[in-house]
Design goal:
Length: 81
């Protein structure tokens, strides 16, 4: 409530701030009572798991291999570095 009140001039008794707080609170309670809070959390957790442990390492490895292949200078025959 304090954050919303700060957005509306700092008065916690401001009718607009109180109405906005009640609207947010009612929406959260409605979502939780319908189970949306848990299902959204599980979807977000699964998505972050897929990105972090499957997709990102694959893409990072592919990108590094591709950049190394195309950016390597041509080999000089008969020259040992």
């Amino acid at each position: 409530m304090r954050v919303i009140a700060d957005l509306h001039g700092g008065d916690e008794n401001d009718p607009v701030a109180v109405a906005e707080y009640e609207e947010i609170k009612d929406k959260v309670l409605e979502d939780v009572s319908h189970g949306f809070g848990f299902s959204i959390s599980m979807k977000a957790l699964l998505r972050s798991f897929i990105y972090a442990y499957a997709l990102c390492p694959f893409l990072c490895s592919w990108l590094m291999l591709t950049l190394n292949f195309f950016s390597a200078p041509p080999a000089k025959h008969g020259h040992i570095p």
